[in-house]
Amino acid sequence: MYGWLWRHLPGPALVRAALLVVAAFAVLAVCFLWVFPAVAPFMPFNETTVGE
Amino acid sequence: MTEQGTAGTGQTDRTGQAGHDVGPAGRPPRSTRPRRGPSRTRHRVYTTIGVVGELLITFGVLLFAFLAWQLWWTDVEGNRAQAEIVRELDRQEVPDPTPSATSSGPVVAEPRRDEPPVLDEPPHATTFATIQVPRWVGEPERPVSQGVDRATVLDVLGVGHYPGTAMPGGVGNFALAGHRTTYAKPFNRVEELQVGDPVVVRTADTWYVYRVTSTQVVLPSQVDVIAPVPGDPGATPTERLITLTTCHPMFSARERFIVHGTLDYWAPVADGTPAELLGGA
Q1: pLDDT in tens, B182-229
Q2: Which residue of B has its CA nearest to A27?
Q3: Handedness of CA B72, B73, B77, B80 (dihedral sign)
Q4: Which of B20, B209, B270, B273 has the fewest CB atoms lying closer than 10 Å?
Q5: CATH superfamily of B98-278
Q6: CA-CA-CA-CA torsion sign (B58, B60, B64, B66)
């Protein structure tokens, strides 16, 4: 998977590494801003309120 | 894995190898493979296992990222948001020290123990007060909002007020809930509280200074801790109480940490600042 990604990225190794770092950061940002807030309520350790 | 085949074909493939990365030029070595049938299926199996492994590793890394988000980032975001809420509150300003006063320090509010003003309960998710605990040195002033559900109050607005319980200064039980960990963790240091510690609530125009009377750990099902008379749901209240509720132990929701307090005094914000917030008392 990552090997395939590496082979299909353009440019010399340094450019590819830079692209991968940017891509990883983008994935992390998407997770922090949208994915994690969306899945957090379904985590078992987040059931804190009783029906008071 | 294709390198295995390339190396085997020897000298003639040297040129092909250079272009191997580019794609189409990498075909010549691939055309040699159909001769070895079983190795081709093996190749496919290994590729699949490799991809599955990479996916699992990625998932593991994302789990750590989720931990970082839950345990750290929700605090960063929550603290920023709650500080903004407190800043934006439409409320009376604490008077500046008058230049003619002998001491240049802030004006200390005179404690009043007559009938305090009591607000009506505001609509859901409305911020109507702030809470400060001098014992928690370094903790910011936290907003207090109506409601205790997580999505609209506790996760985004900080401290929540149990609907139906008394309002600040009222006879009965002014009951609050807050996160112990994550989402800016307003009640993180609740265990540091000692009997007699002041808990200062500020509404638009009034200070309410409560004093801690007891702390206890209960099960989540013991909801009568927020009854007008804690532990006696049917009784008619005569005291003006405050109750802080939060999760216990930290990072768990197994039990609840409960702090009870009673109203010591109140003061109009226009009169100054309670001595408790100025390092006195």
Answers
A1: 999 999 999 999 999 999 999 999 999 999 999 999 998 889 999 999
A2: B62
A3: positive
A4: B270
A5: Sortase (2.40.260.10)
A6: positive
Task: Please check whether residue A48 touches B, CB under 8 A.
Answer: yes
ipTM: 0.87
Q: Does the beta carbon of A47 lie under 8 angstroms from any beta carbon of chain B? A: yes
Q: Smallest CA–CA separation between B147 and chain A, in Å?
A: 11
Query: Any CB–CB contact under 8 A between B50 and chain A?
Result: yes
User: Of the candidates A1, A28, A41, which has its C-beta nearest B65's C-beta?
Assistant: A28
**B46 near A CB under 8 A:** no
> Measured between alpha carbons, how far is B99 from B275 in angstroms, rounded to an integer?
20
Report the residue of chain B nearest A28, measured CA to CA. Answer: B65
Can you give chain B as a three-state secondary structure string?
CCHHHHHHHHHHHHHHHHHHHCCHHHHHHHCCHHHCHHHHHHHHHHHHHHHHHHHHHHHHHHHHHHHHHHHHHHHHHHHHHHHHHHHHCCCCCCCCCCCCCCCCCCCECCCECCCCCCCCCCCCCCEEEEEECCCCCCCCCEEEEECCCHHHHHCCCCEEECCCCCCCCCCEEEEEECCCCCCCCCCCCHHHCCCCCEEEEECCCEEEEEEEEEEEEECCCCHHHHCCCCCCCCCCCCCEEEEEEEEECCCCCCEEEEEEEEEEEEEEHHHCECHHHHCCC
The pLDDT-based confidence of B4 (bands split at 50, 70, 90) is: very low
Measured from the Cβ of residue B175, the count of other Cβ atoms closer than 10 Å reads: 27
